Known about the structure:
The protein has helices spanning 17-26, 56-63, 85-93, 103-114, 123-134, 139-146, 151-160, and strands at 7-10, 13-16, 34-38, 51-55, 69-73, 80-84. It is α+β, with helices and mostly antiparallel strands. The protein has a two-stranded antiparallel sheet with strand order 1-2. Strands 3-4 form a two-stranded antiparallel sheet. Strand 5 (69-73) and strand 6 (80-84) form a beta hairpin. The protein is elongated and about 75 Å long.
Amino acid sequence: MQSEYKHIMYKGKIVLEHRKIMEDIIKRPLEKEELVHHIDGNPWNNNIENLKIVTKEEHMKLHKKEPKTVELICDTCKIKFKRLLRMHKYKTKNKYKHKYCSKKCCIIGTEKYLTGNKYKGTSKFAKIIEKGLKKGLTPYAIAKQSGKFSKGTVYFYLKNKK
């Protein structure tokens, strides 16, 4: 298995070059919790100006990447919201036509879609779900059968119905 870091032989052992360089500079062995960070991100650049001793926590913060997001506008309430880019690509690929910021907006939007843009609270949407429940269908089966909303929307409706 090839490592992304340079290794050297020292006293008959293979060691990481950047750790050995840092130990030589500070004139002591590195502690177990001390890591050597490559400032420019290049693990082959072991110049002392590019090396820094950090704790595991500091190192995690330095390498933490913010997830990529895309800004969208909710089809129901028209507010801007962010969605993970990978989720947006998945929904677009799977032909989701609408963008909702929350489950509540999803229910309202689905209701508008089913009733021709008139939101009345629970008319046709609720009837579809209640009819499926009477048949003994699961929320997943109800959603799949309708083809117009997700099982999450059905669960949300069931959780919040009065």
